[in-house]
Amino acid sequence: MLRIQTALAQHYIEAAPDELSERIAAAKATLGERLLVLGHHYQRDEVMRWADARGDSFRLSSLAAENSLAEYIVFCGVHFMAESADILTAEHQQVILPDLNAGCSMADMADIDSVEEAWEALERITDIERLIPITYMNSAAALKAFVGRKGGAVCTSTNARGVLEWALAKGDKVLFFPDQHLGRNTGLAMGYGHDDMALWNPHRDLGGLTEAACKEATLLLWKGHCSVHQRFTPDQIAAFRAEHPAGVVIAHPETSYEVCDAADEVGSTDFIIRAVEAAPAGTT
Fold it and tell me: What is the chain's Cα-based Rg?
C-alpha cells in the first residue's frame, strides 16, 4: 500500500456539514460505480451514511475484491483493514484510507520483527515443522505474509475455531497472534484448558517462559489485546444482571475469558448485530 498522507485542505476543515454533504454526494454521483465506499461497523453515523456497504473487516475486504467495477475503494476503517482490502483487490483498483494515522492498538502489539524473533527462538527448542502460526485478521499485512510463508493461516473472529482445528490437525502447536483473548476463548471453547496455553511476552527472552512451558503448551498466545474490549468486566455484567434479571449478555471473543464466561453468548460483531436485530421488541 502506498502511504501518502497529505494535510487536509483548509476549506474542508472550515466547511459546514451541509456543504461537505453536498460535496460528497456530488463526488459519488460523478464517479458512480467507479467508487465504492466501505464503512466498518465501528464507524460513527455521519460517516456510515455515505457507505455503500457496511460490515467487519473481512466482509468489507471481500466485497471490495468482488466489486471489479470499482476503481477507487475508500475504506472508512483502520490501517490493517485497508491493507487487507489492498491484498485482495485487483491491480486496477486503488484502496484509499482517508486517514493513514487511523490505527489499531492491538494490531500494533505484534510487529513482523517481534514475530520473526519469536519464531527463531521457538525454532531452537521445538520441532518448528509442527508449529503452525495463526494471525488474526486484525494484524498488519506483513504478518499475514509471514503466516503464509510458514504454512499457517489468517483467521477471523467468526472462523477462529475452524482455523485452529485445521492447524492442530496439521501440527502439534499453534503460535497465535496478536490477540491473546481470541486465542484463549477459542481454545477453551474447543475443550483445551488453561494449562494447555502459555502467554508469550514479546518483550522478554523466550516470551518470559521456560523452555519446558514452550514445549508443553498447545497454544502459545501472543501478549496482545484490544484496549477497548478490556474495558468490559465481570462486575459490569453482574451489575447489569442485578438491574435486568431477564437481560441477555453477548460478549465479543476479544474480551477476557472472565467476561466471556459470564456472558450468555459469545460471537463476532456480525453475530452480535444479528442477535440484536432478531431479538423480540422489549428485549434487554
Answer: 21
**Domain shared by 92 and 127, yes or no:** no
Per-residue model confidence (pLDDT) at position 238: 98
Q: Which three cell numbers stand for residue 1?
A: 500500500
Is residue 122 domain-shared with residue 217, that is, in the same domain?
A: yes
Among residues 202, 222, 242, which one ends one of the domains?
222
Same domain, 218 and 233: no
The count of domains in the chain is 3
pLDDT band at 11 (very low <50, low <70, confident <90, very high): confident
Q: How many angstroms separate the CA atoms of 186 and 79, rounded?
A: 25
pLDDT in tens, 233-264: 999 999 999 999 999 999 999 999 999 999 99
Cell numbers at 108, concatenated: 500494533
What is the number of other CB atoms lying within 10 angstroms of the CB of residue 91? 5
Q: Give the other-Cβ count within 10 Å of 39's Cβ.
A: 22
The rounded distance, in Å, linking the Cα atoms of 270 and 281 is 19
Q: Tell me if 156 sits within 8 A of 137, measured CB to CB.
A: yes
Determine the structural domain holding residue 193 and report its residue range. 107-222
Residue 170: inside a domain, yes or no? yes
For residues 55 and 108, is the Cβ–Cβ distance under 8 A? no
pTM of the model: 0.89
pLDDT above 90: residue 2: no
